[in-house]
Design a protein that fits this description.
Layout (H helix, E strand, L loop, with lengths): L11 H10 L4 E4 L6 E4 L2 H4 L4 H6 L4 H13 L2 H27 L3 H30 L15
Antiparallel strand pairs: 1-2
Amino acid sequence: MAAAVPTSSSRYDDESELIEQAIDFKYRPSSNATHYTAVQTAQESFVPGQLFRWLNRREPLQARHRLGNLYWRGWGRVVMSFFLAAFGITFDVIGLLCMLTCDEYERGIGFVIIGMLMTMPGVYGAIILLLYLRGRRGYCYTQLPDISQ
């Protein structure tokens, strides 16, 4: 019988198969004392590295390295992008609700303008960070302003 030749050119496919094979099953006794049934734990339901494979299919270890860079060096930029986008969207929603339901139309316009001024840099920063994590050339977290300085 001939040995199976792997058809995939990625070196990480073999690693994921090994991880799946190495999962330990926990057993619990069934109603019959001589039989045991396998119980899937939370650790088994999540294959390690799945997030990194989603971010960069060809080089998941590079995505892991980039995420580590963001965690240790660029956390201020991540926080700034998240909060600007979140507060901007919140101000936009409040402004639109105020314009549509309240008598304070001018105040609603003010909220929408402030919300747009906060949303644009927040979403821009989030897109830059996502493209950096995905490994696109020309994108780096250092393109965003640093709030710690």
